[in-house]
Prior knowledge:
By secondary structure, this protein is an alpha+beta fold.
Amino acid sequence: MFGCNGLGGRYRRSLLAFTAWTLLCWYIFRLPEPESSQNHKSATNLNNQGVGINIVQSRELQQLQQQKAVDNTTVSSLQSTTETTEINIFEAQPFIDRSRKLNETEKANLLQAKIPNLPLVYWFENKNKVRSKNKTCARYPGVYDINFNNIYWQQLETSNGTFFLYAAYLDVRHKNRLGPTVRILSMINRIEPKVKTYCQLWFNSTKEPVFSKVLEYKYIWYKKWGNYKQGLFQPYLLACQLPKNYWNEVPASVSIVEHECDNATTNLRVVYNKLPAGAEKEKFAVCVKGLDFPDDDLSVRLVEWLEVLNVLGAHKIFLYNLEVHPNVTKVLDYYTKQGVVDVTPLSLPGYQPNLPGLQHMYLKSKVNNKRQNELIPYNDCLYRNMYRYEYIALLDIDEVIMPLNHNNWSSLMDAVIKESLKVKNESRASYNFRNVYFMDEMLESHEHGHFKDIPPYLHMLQHVYRSANYTKPGQYVKCFHNPEKALILHNHFPLGCLGGVCTSYPVDTELAHLQHYRNDCVSTLKKSCAESFKKNSVKDTTIWRYKDELISRTTTSLMRMGFFGGSGQSAPVTQSTPPLNAQSSANGDVRLAVNGENADNNDTKNVP
């Protein structure tokens, strides 16, 4: 008994001593947990408890953290993966726009550049003056009185049709039989408008408007091309003569009204881009219709095309922009800063959609509507530049007028003019170049790959195989237009000319032609495309005359814009306008009896 009791007592004392020693060691050597770990455990525990406890303790935790932030003078709250930036929250200033606000004059000038058809500067200078015929007649329409439509258009409702006005221009060309005339580019939802309208002309020299009747609605279309229906938007050029006692003045703006004394809802700045005294015209301008490529990245193709035109002698390329890929915007911005291009934003008038994406789908589906809308930028480009350039070309970004025996457009046209005068001793309204296709597939069928000494992303330099056959004379041609004679322009030919009948001189294909880079023929030639154009192809390396310069220029531009790291991709281009045929006269000229002053019946056929 005694032995057993002694053994049991010793065992109990040893167990108590071991337990005491273990607790002492745990207490001495335990490490404090990091605060973030404690918070994490607290959050974990809270997630395992009731909803009410979770909400209360979370709020307490937030309040505790906020109190700590306030108590500390500095915080390290701006952190990245590489560094921590300490800021003094009581001295730091957020990065917001603190630039000086523009005054009203500066704002007017800035807006004038963005919306050139508005007389903003004139309106601002005269907004506190009373300008009208009398208290109840023809009050000057301020900017806030204008019925705007889709940003760039102004709307007039008449008793017989709705007018959407785009821009106005002063025409003082010496061949203009009307004398100094204000011409207004518009879309009207009527065919052969019958409603009588008037111009209210506003001059700096008078407080009253000068009235002038709209003399004509020049139709920029042929009814046999389609869309000849009431209610559809039709392109027109309106004309108002300046009274003789104002022939030496330039109107500041013009309004169109149905009755002389109406208070106008339109007010367009009159564009008059006269050259400064002593200045000479530049040789060549190129005009491009509204760009509509929201999904196709044609940026690299566009760079090459712009550089080709620049090498050939284009002084400036004027482009109109509906909707393009962001990379194309990057290219346009770059070349605008270089002074190579001029980009004008554009919208569709009236009920036509301008929503990104939907607009493209609409234009793709409504081809004739698209063609008619294109005539607005084409003719705006003509009238903005008619005093500045000797020749104006309307080109798509897959087309180049290529000299075959000359280094540039200037020397080419010297030779063309010389040849044309031999046929008839008069200047022509235009000089047209026959169309020949450079199809995408022709390179592969001949070379089975790209030329190794040319970057593969330079489409035109790579694609040097073309159809052996040209399209028929007068079909799908492009022209150098003479702005001294052209009254209204279509994609392929002038539709109206000052002095009457339009004449277009066909340039011999031994001198030059229109190189048209496409994936396939235009839709109206699809049935005959394989047999007439794809079957027989020849190698044409005329463009290689500029190869080294083009490679250098395009590569340099692409590098500066940050395109490298990947090569550009070719994309299908938009279809050209359908054909415009013309009959050749005995002297070789293509004569278009069209829509001009005292014009004869028109000889053109088919669709545009």
